[in-house]
Amino acid sequence: MASIALYYPWMHFQDSDWLKLALLSDGMSGGGPRHGTIVDRRPNGGGLNGAIGSYIVRDDEDERYYTFDYRQIVSEGFRTIRTGERVRFHVSAHSPDRAEFVIRLDQPDPAEYYR
Q1: What angle do CA 107, 27, 36 make, to 5 degrees?
Q2: How many alpha carbons lie under 13 Å from residue 64 in its C-beta half-sphere?
Q3: CA 71, 73, 28: angle at the middle one, nearest 5?
Q4: Could you give the CA distance from residue 52 to residue 45 in angstroms, rounded to a whole number?
Q5: Every domain of the chain and the residues it spans
Q6: Residue 28 pLDDT
Q7: What is the DSSP letter of 98?
Q8: What number is the average pLDDT over the span 41-69?
Q9: How buried is 66 (Cβ within 10 angstroms: 0-12 exposed, 13-18 middle, 19+ buried)?
Q10: Region 83-100: what's the mean pLDDT?
Q11: What is the distance between the alpha carbons of residues 25 and 21, in angstroms, rounded to a whole number?
């Protein structure tokens, strides 16, 4: 029997449903990461009140469409994506038509933005 164990004295999770789902499965309704292409950007439809821009991604495997806004883009810099870029994402466990944890796969050259 192991004599060493990790101990976390206190952890607070804001969404207990998410925690349950993450512990019982991979935490995503889509069964893991998916790959797609950004096909459109709309000036509204994102955010809590639908007032901020939203993006549409088409899944490369089953060609279904999912929407997301800039808050779902995982980035170390600016949260923006251009039409035509390839991304990896998860399908939302709460809303099967929404993408979340969107990661850009085709990182542009920073010099292109400063020409």
Answers
A1: 35
A2: 12
A3: 95
A4: 6
A5: 28-113
A6: 43
A7: B
A8: 83
A9: buried
A10: 90
A11: 6
CA angle 100, 106, 108 (to 5 degrees): 115
- pLDDT of 29 higher than 60: no
Whether the predicted pLDDT of 99 surpasses 80: yes
Neighbours of 68 (CB within 10 A): 23
Superfamily of domain 28-113: Nucleic acid-binding proteins (2.40.50.140)
Residue 67's nearest CA partner among 94, 93, 96 is: 96
pLDDT at 27: 42
Extended beta strands in the chain, E state? 34-46, 52-59, 65-69, 73-74, 86-91, 99-104
Q: pLDDT category, 110, cuts 50, 70, 90?
A: low
* Paired residues of 38 in beta bridges: 57
Q: For residues 28 and 18, which has the higher predicted lDDT (pLDDT)?
A: 18
